[in-house]
Amino acid sequence: MTATYREQGDIAVITLNNPPVNGLGYDTRKGIVEGILQANENAAIRAIILAGEGKGFSGGADIREFNTPKALQEPWLQTVIQIVENSGKPVIAAIHGVAMGGGLELALGCHYRVAVAGAQIALPEVKLGILPGAGGTQRLPRILGLETALNMIVSGNPVMSEKLAGTKLFDHMITGELMAGAMDFARKVADVRPLPKVRDISITYPNADGYLQFARNTVRTVAGPFPAPLKCVDAVAAAVNKKFDDGLKVERDLFLELVQTSESKALRHAFFGERAASKIPDVPADTPLRTIRSAAVIGAGTMGGGIAMNFANAGIPVKVLEVKQEALDKGMNILRKNYENSMKKGKLTQEQLEKRLSLISGTMSYDDIGQADIVIEAVFEDMSVKEVVFKKLDEVMKPGAILASNTSTLDIDKIAAFTKRPQDVIGTHFFSPANVMKLLEIVRGEKTAKDVLATTMALAKTIRKTGVVSGVCDGFIGNRMVEQYIRQAGFLLEEGCLPEQVDKAIEKFGFAMGPFRMSDLAGNDIGWYIRKRRYVEKPEVTYSKVADLLCEKGRFGQKTSAGWYDYKPNDRKAYPSDEVNQMIIAHSKDLGIEHRKISDQEIIERLVYALVNEGALILEEGIAMKASDIDMVYLTGYGFPLFRGGPMFYADTIGLSNVLMAINRYGKGRHPEAWVPAPLLVKLAAESQAFN
Ligand code: 3HC
Ligand code: NAI
Predict the structure, then answer these.
(1) Residue 304 CA: which ligand is closest?
(2) How far apart are CA 513 and CA 639, in angstroms?
(3) Helix ranges restricted to H, 242-261
(4) Residue 376 in contact with residue 349, Cβ under 8 Å?
(5) Which of 406, 419, 467, 670 could make an SS bond with 378 (beta carbons 3.0 to 4.6 A apart)?
(6) Could you tell me the distance, in angstroms and rounded to a whole number, from the CA of residue 20 to the centre of ligand 1?
(7) Better pLDDT: 595 or 128
(8) Cα 270 from Cα 335, distance rounded (Å)
(9) Is residue 649 over pLDDT 90?
(10) Is the preceding peptide bond at 317 cis, omega within 30 degrees of 0?
(11) So which residues are the catalytic ones?
C-alpha cells in the first residue's frame, strides 16, 4: 500500500508511503480516501493525522502519471481534498521535508497544519508548465494573502517552513519529534467545532483588481513563450473575484488546458531528462563512490580558472597548477576579478568571497597536487602537451585519484593510454564560462572504471552541473552535432542568406544565439583550426569555404572586434558588416551559385534537422545512452529553447516521418552528402515511433 492506516489510541494516522517523494499517484490517493472513511466510521477515533514517510510529506501529484488515464482516475486529487475537508473529524497535516504542489494542496485541504523547521513549501507547478490544479491557487491566497501567494505560485520557488511560521499556514511549529508533536496537537483540537476550513477564509486586499493587472503586466514581460505564468495570475484572480467553487472550476479548466501544451510536455521532459541522465544502465545506483575532498586543476587559462571556481563554490579545496608564474598570476587574477564582480552584483558577500578564494591556491610544482582526490587537466588542446601532462600525473598522483581531461576534441582513450591506470582516466568536458554553464559532458573511456564514472556523475551534482555521459568520438555529443548545424549555416550563406538572416530566424525559433553570433563569441579561429585538421584527416567532409575566407581576413570574432559582424569598443552588439556580406555574395558568384530567397522555415529546418540527424547517429552508435541525454546536452549547453524540449524531443513532436521527409528533400539540394538520413531515424519513422 502506498498510503497506510493505523490507529494510536483515539488518533488515526494515515501515512503516505510512495517513494521517492510520496507522489500522489492513484493508489496513494485511494489509500488516503479509504483512511479518512475508516477513521470517520470508528467512533473511538477523535482526530486524523496525515503524514509522509521518508523524505517528506509529499512532492505533489505523481508526475509520472501525467497524460496517462491514471492521472484523472477517481479519486482525483480534488476529490481527495474534498473528502479530507468534509471529514467530520479534524484532519491535521504533519509536515516535514517537502510539501510541494499537490502535497501542499492536500495540506491546505486539511483543517490544521503543523510542521517542523526545514521543510520546503512550494507550489512549483509553473516550473512544469502547469498550475496548481487541486485548489492551490484558491486556497493559498486565502491563507497567506494575495501577494505572497501570487509570488509563490508564479515563481514556483520554495519557501522554508520556518519563514512561514506565524502565518495562518501553520497552526503550530513543532520543535521536537514531528509525530509526537502532531499527536499532542491533535488531542488539543480534537473536539473543537466547527472545523476550520481554508475555503471559508475571505481574501481582503485593497484594489485587488489593480494589483492583479500590475501582476499580469509584470508576468507577461518575464514569461517568454510559456503560457503557464499568466494562467496562474488568471486562476488567482478567480480566487479573488469568484465564489470558492467557481474559482476551483476555473483553476481546473486552466490546469487541463496547460497540461496538454507542448511547453508543459517539454518542461516535464527536461525535468525527467535531468534525473534520467544520472542513471547509467551498467553502473548500479549503489556503486561505491570514491571520496572527493580535494581537487587539482592543471592550467589556469580560460577553462582552468572557471573549473577551479566550481570546486571552491562547493567548498572543495583546489590547487591550480601552471608552468609559468606569469600565467599563474594572470589566471588567479581573473579568478579573483570574477568573484569580485559577483560580489558587486550582490551575488556573493565579502565573507563568501574570502572563503572561496581561501580554498583556491596556485602552484607550479606537481609535488603539491599528488594527494588530490581528482585532478582535471585544462592545458592547450594539443595531444603532445596532454601526453606530457598525463605522464607526469601518472607519476605523482596518489593511487585511486581520478585523472580527468577537459579536452573538447581529443581521444580520451589515447590520453588514458599515456598512463598505467587508464581505469582512472575520464573526460570532464566543461563549457565556457565553466563556472556558469550548467552542462558537464562526462566522457567515458573504453577502460574508465565504473566507480570513476559514478563518482564523477555524483561530483557533477555536487558542483551543481547537469552531468551527461558521452562515449568517445570526435566532438562528443554536443560539438559533434553542432558541427552539422554550423555546416548547414555555412551552406545557407552560399545559397542566399546573410549571417543576420540566419541568426534572426533561429533566434526567433528560440535559440539563445544564432550560429554566427555564437561563433563570433567563441572565436572563429577555433572552428578554423578544427576544419584545417579535418581537411587532412577527413577530406570527404564538405564545408563552405566562407568561414575560412573570414578567418583569412583576421576576423576572429568579438576578440578582434570583427567577425561575421562588426563590433564597437565596449559594445557586444553585433552590427551587420558590409565587408562580410559583400565577401559572401562574391564567394557565391565565384561558385556560380545564384543567390535565392530562403525562407525562415528552411533555415530552421536545415539547422535543427542537421542536429537531429547527427543525434540519431550518435544514439545508434551508443555515444549517447538515450535521446533525453542529447536533449539535456542541448538544453543546458547550447541554448536550445527549453520550451521545445531539446532537438530529439522537438523532432518527436514534429513527427519523425515529417523530419525524414524534409531531410530527403534537402538531400536533393546542393549538398546531398550532408543529408544522408541516419538509419535509426529511417527505422523509427517507418515504425511510427519516437526517439523519446
Ligand atoms: N512525482 C513523481 N516523481 C517525482 C516527483 C513527483 N512529483 N518529484 C520528484 N520525483 C522523483 C524524481 O523523478 C526522482 O526520481 P528518481 O530517483 O527515479 O530519479 C526522485 O523523485 C528524487 O527527485 P530529486 O532527484 O529531484 O530529489 P531531491 O531531493 O533533489 O528533490 C523534490 C525532491 C524537491 C521533491 C524535487 O524532486 C522536486 O522539485 N520535484 C518536483 C515537485 C513538483 O513539481 N511537484 C508538483 C507536481 S505537479 C502537481 O502537484 C499538480 C497538482 O497541482 C495537481
Ligand atoms: P587556454 O589557452 O586559455 O589555457 C590553457 C592554459 O594551460 C594556459 O594558461 C597555459 O599556460 C596552460 N598550460 C599549457 N601547458 C601547460 C602544462 N604543460 N602544464 C600546465 N599548464 C599548462 O585554453 P582553454 O581555452 O582554457 O582550454 C583548455 C582546455 O579546455 C583545452 O583542452 C580545450 O580544448 C578545452 N576546452 C576549452 C573550451 C573553451 O571554450 N575555451 C571549452 C571546453 C573545453
Answers:
(1) 2
(2) 7
(3) 244-259
(4) no
(5) 406
(6) 8
(7) 128
(8) 32
(9) yes
(10) no
(11) 105, 125
- Ligand nearest the Cα of residue 326 is 2
Q: Which of 358, 458, 481 lies closest to 402, judged by CA? A: 458
DSSP assigned state of 192: -
Reduced to 3 states, what is the DSSP secondary structure of residue 608?
A: helix
Residue nearest to atom 14 of ligand 2 (CA): 379
Look up cell 513563450; give the residue. Answer: 225
| Cα diameter, the chain | 93
CA atoms in the 13 A half-sphere facing the CB of 563: 26
Residue with cell 517507418: 686
For residue 21, report the distance from its CA to the centre of ligand 1, in Å. 6
User: Is 55 exposed, middle or buried (CB count within 10 Å of its CB: 0-12, 13-18, 19+)?
Assistant: middle
User: What pLDDT does residue 248 have?
Assistant: 97
pLDDT band (50, 70, 90) for residue 38: very high
**In residues, how long is the chain?**
692
Q: Which amino acid is at 194?
A: P
DSSP 8-state secondary structure symbol assigned to residue 667: T
Compute, in angstroms, the gap from residue 323 CA to the centroid of ligand 2: 12
Pairing of β 466-470 and β 439-443: parallel
Number of helices (H), then strands (E), in the chain: 28, 19
What pLDDT was estimated at residue 113? Answer: 98
Cell of 111: 483543517
Q: Are 606 and 666 in contact (CB under 8 A)?
A: yes
pLDDT in tens, 66-114: 778 888 899 999 999 999 999 999 999 999 999 999 999 999 999 999 9
Q: For residue range 316-335, list pLDDT tens digits in order.
A: 999 999 999 999 999 999 99
Which residues, at least 6 apart from 27, have a Cβ–Cβ distance to it below 8 Å? 1, 2, 3, 18
565 touches 516 (CB < 8 A): yes
DSSP bridge pairs for 113:
93
Handedness of CA 309, 311, 314, 316 (dihedral sign): negative
Q: Tell me what percent of the residues of the chain surpass a pLDDT of 90.
A: 95
pTM for the full predicted model: 0.93
Q: Are 648 and 630 in contact (CB under 8 A)?
A: yes
Ligand nearest to the CA of 139: 1
The pocket around ligand 2, CB under 6 angstroms, is made up of 298-304, 321-323, 327, 331, 378-381, 385, 388-389, 406-408, 429-432
